[in-house]
């Protein structure tokens, strides 16, 4: 009002305040500073703040109730509410963490994780299924599927289907510290599962593992799990795993047309720009079956889960590789496939190919080694003669056998 040319009297009359107040605000060009100083009140907790800070420095998990109980023997007479507010302020200050957001170039990184979902059947029994998911870091396109197990062959099979879905592989894949991936750190370097490393070399990507207790590093894949649980799973009528995977695939096809909240672009359009940057897939898929080492026994068999499997007799004593997957066993000697067997139900079975024992019967050299170093199998056995006298000096009288018959007759009489 003053800048518009109104006098202090006119301003005081319009606003209903005194001219002295109008003059004070105009002279200070705003709110005048208060001359009253702030009164600093002492707290009953001040003498004990050093103890509280030391305890929280030792372990931030200490609760305010624990700290309050340990302050009472030290002479603290205040209330629990004072301690709770102080502990809350210290934790807020020390636990304040800032994160730096990062984006990856097209085709550079994808992230992988496993999630667990519970299913209740008609009888009220709760069972678990698992969700594998892989997300491309640039376009945010997701591949996901439900699986019954989270073992290593299933884990790698899901990778292969994800690669086929995307039409290529990123330069690196970021994992959590799961047992299927990470073993431990040796000499400052991350040690990965040997099978996973062979898989990574086959598809030409570099595996990486997130730091421990740092879920924010894998935020691109962690956030979609909440998105799937709330958007797809909540209220979903589960029938079977195959139907759920089909419904999940169709649901993702619709969601790929949406504008992503972070990139502010349509996911499918952003993926079209990322697709040319993905690495090409190899001509042959990786063999994801279990690799088991067994030594061939003298009966020409190898043992696996309570059953015996016959192999050629020429391999007795050799170490073979058993590749097992989906109740199918392939037996290899080095890189040569020996035989393929179907794994039977139960235990105690002898699984054989009749050709192997037939070949053993016809192997003359093997029969010579078994039956006496060159002696014919049909040769006459050596006669043995019972000795007439004991080999060692013993205080035993040797009698003819008819004496015992005579003694037996006397006993019966």
Commentary on this structure:
34% of the residues lie in helices and 20% in strands. By secondary structure, it is α+β, with helices and mostly antiparallel strands. The protein folds into 4 domains: 1-32, no CATH class; 46-94; 109-277, 2-Layer Sandwich (Nucleotidyltransferase, domain 5); 290-368, no CATH class. The strands form 4 sheets. A 5-stranded mixed beta sheet has the order 3-2-1-4-7, sandwiched between helices. Strand 1 and strand 2 form a beta hairpin. The radius of gyration is 41 Å and the shape is elongated.
Summarize the helices and strands and which ones pair or pack.
Elements: H1 8-15, H2 19-28, H3 49-58, H4 64-71, H5 80-94, E1 109-120, E2 126-136, E3 142-147, H6 152-166, E4 172-175, E5 182-186, E6 189-192, H7 194-203, E7 206-209, H8 219-233, H9 241-255, H10 267-274, E8 290-295, E9 301-304, E10 307-310, E11 319-325, E12 328-333, E13 336-342, E14 350-351, H11 354-362, H12 364-370, H13 402-412
Parallel strand pairs: 1-4, 4-7, 10-14
Antiparallel strand pairs: 1-2, 2-3, 5-6, 8-11, 9-10, 11-12, 12-13
